[in-house]
Input
Amino acid sequence: MRKVYICLLLILITACKNQSDIKVVSLPQPKVITPEVLSDELIMQPPLEMKSYGDYLLFTQPMMGKSLLFYNRKTAHQFYWGKIGSGPDDFMSASCIYHNYHDSVIEIYDTNLRKMVSFKTLIENDSISLTSKERFQVNTDSISTLGLHKMENGYYVSQALFGHKNMFVLFDKDLKIIKTFGEKPIKQMPDANYSYLYGWFASKGNKLYFASQPTGYLACYEITDKGSVKKEWDAFFTTPKYDTTPAFNWARDNQQGFYDIQLSKQYLFLSFSGKSFEQGDVFPQSIVILKHNGELQKHIKLDEDHILLKFTLEGDDIYAVGLDQMIKFNWKEAL
Output
């Protein structure tokens, strides 16, 4: 049984100032729900990502030696694909940066190998084949990047962990660097080091969203079809704690932020922790729902027996995985 000792404020949104003069969003008391358990024994280790792909749930890095797992939501049929390696269509650390079921396209990126491969999928009789169509080698020069995300307008975005004053790198459709963008959200942070702000991307149309896992930092950018970038809004959902003397150092009692992010036509969904390592268990139990403009709509919390590390949307349902369970619940009923 997992115990949670998080004190949540009763007001909807409160703007306060900390040592960095940063706006911090406080969450309301959550609506507690009990999800439906689909599996008590996971068919894999906790995956890096979870996506919806037609009737399937798509997991990346589901187990040692495999790149992808397709799990049929209707039949529970499992299909593993890929292998660990450095061959043309092999991966060391596979992540799904783009998927379009209607066009039968999946794009896989490997941060370690710095390569992206675009695949055409074919589904027949609950069997799935992937055929590589294009391969790209990604060169970021002196910038050390983490992950990659493809937007609907064809641009790619990555996180700049080290080597540049800005947080993100924008690529064209051929994965050539166009520019960097995104200033430091904390002015006291050291230059060209965003390793403590790593996180996850989601996008719809020209809007890009970034959610940080070690902190509760959330940002929205507009990237136009011509490649111009504008920050729409940003906010912290946890208070950053750190020392600045003798050097900048993050405090151990920082609350963890967002473990996943998904978008629907109307809403932004985030898997949120809000717990620190001093509490031991930092695994997220909450889903925070906002409008695309950042307006807070709902705070949903799973009961103490469940967590959600990764999740995906399928209509009005959320499918999620924890350490040893796959669960499902209706988010619209909770809204």
Remarks:
- Residues 1-20 have pLDDT under 50 and may be disordered.
